[in-house]
Amino acid sequence: MVKSKFQEEARLAEPSDISAQIGTSQEPQEARQQVPSPPSAIRTFLNGRGNSKGADSAFRGTMLICALSIFAIVILIATVLILRAHLAMSTFGFGFLTSHLWNPHPPGTPQNDSPDGQFGALPFIYATLVSSFLSLLIAVPLAVGTAIFLTEMCPGFLRGPLAFLTELLAAIPSVVYGLWAVFVLIPLLRDKVNPLLIKGLGWTGLFSGNNTGFGMLAAGVILAIMILPIISSLTREVMSAVPSSQREAALALGATRWEMIRMGVLRNARIGIVGAIILGLGRAIGETMAVTMVIGNKNIISPSLLSSANTMPSLLANEYGEADPGLYLSALVEIGLVLFVVTIIVNAMARLMVWAVTRGAPDAVR
After folding, report:
1. Considering just the CA atoms, what is the radius of gyration of the chain in Å?
2. Do 181 and 294 meet the contact criterion of CB atoms below 8 Å apart?
3. How far apart are CA 17 and CA 24, in angstroms?
């Protein structure tokens, strides 16, 4: 009885002892928690740098200068072109844009003196726009189709090599494209393609005249090959950025693969695709060497795509080095000014197209 009594007292005393032990074990933990941790390296740097108002102001000013430099460069280019083209502008006025004559040395005028030269930019504006938009007509379907295949349908082992080869086309110099066109594309068009076009579509007037291989069709084809990798690569990047949930939602609703691509992918990527086309068009308008080697270099206006022509960049490449100081040189500079203005107008129209496409989209998408 005595032993059991002592055991009962010990048992009743155990909880208090345990709680005391727990309390003593928790005290060091609470003490450790109250000890502040040392500041991190980032916090130490931020605390020791002092007032950052001056640094923020300097950074803001630097970024503002970078943004304003774009406007300054454009204004500087336009100013120099206007000053150098002032003689031709004052001589021909607005008629320079509507005249189809380009005769630096009229009959009876000495070769080294051309005060009475006749200059008009209309043939070159026409050839530049026709060849550029023809290249878009050929390149855009191929580029978008290539991007769709690489993004949605291409096997994994083939996607990398095809994407690499597509982007490799953009790194080839334009003079190499021109040489390839002279030795391969021109004979192919002259002997195989153009006769079929003349036979089947000659009645339209777009494919008539002498079949030399050189002309606006050849220029449009070589430009299409040159801008295809630009449009395709950018379109592929934009389509890859479309969330997979858009594809899965369309398929879950019973859409076919084409319907999923059209509604779930292309619709969401349309803004980026338009931007890619704009960049491709800018490259086509300003291309010089390849076009100069295949377009024929004749200062005429013809509705036939098989006829020779001359673009504004090719005219400058051919004649600027041989131009006499005075009116001839001033007219060539005005051609450069017209090319500059045409580029701005085309980009403005492209921005208008982007706005028309995205006016119903959220601001974040724009």
Report:
1. 35
2. yes
3. 10
Instruction: Encode 198-233: b = buried (16+ Cβ within 10 Å), e = exposed.
Output: beeeeeeeebbbebebbbbbbbbbbbbbbbbbbbbb
6 Cβ contact partners less than 8 Å away, ≥ 6 residues apart: none
Residue 52 banded pLDDT, cuts 50, 70, 90 = low
Token pair in block for residue 283: 């490259």
CA distance linking residue 144 with residue 159, whole number of Å: 15
Instruction: For tokens 């005060």, name the residue.
Output: 115
Q: Determine the number of helices (DSSP H) and then strands (DSSP E) in the chain.
A: 17, 2
Q: How many Cβ atoms sit within 10 Å of the Cβ of residue 253?
A: 11
Could you give the domains of the chain? 122-358 (1.10.3720.10)
Which residues neighbour 321 within 8 Å (Cβ) at sequence distance 6 or greater? none
Residues 68-120 pLDDT 10s: 999 999 999 999 999 999 988 888 888 888 888 888 876 555 554 445 578 88
Instruction: Kindly tell me the sign of the dihedral angle through the C-alpha atoms of 79, 85, 87, 88.
Output: negative
Count of all residues that appear for the chain in the document: 366
pTM of the model: 0.77
The residues, any chain, with a CB within 8 Å of residue 339's CB and separated by 6 or more, are 128, 285, 286, 312, 313, 316
pLDDT one-digit tens code per residue, 203-251: 888 888 888 889 999 999 999 999 999 899 888 888 888 888 888 888 8
Q: What are the Cα distances from residue 129, in Å, to 133, 220, 349? A: 6, 10, 14
Residue 109, exposed/middle/buried by CB under 10 A (0-12, 13-18, 19+)?
A: middle
DSSP string, 83-131: HHTHHHHHHHTTHHHH---EESS-TTS-TT--TT-EE--HHHHHHHHHH
Pair of tokens at residue 362: 């959220």
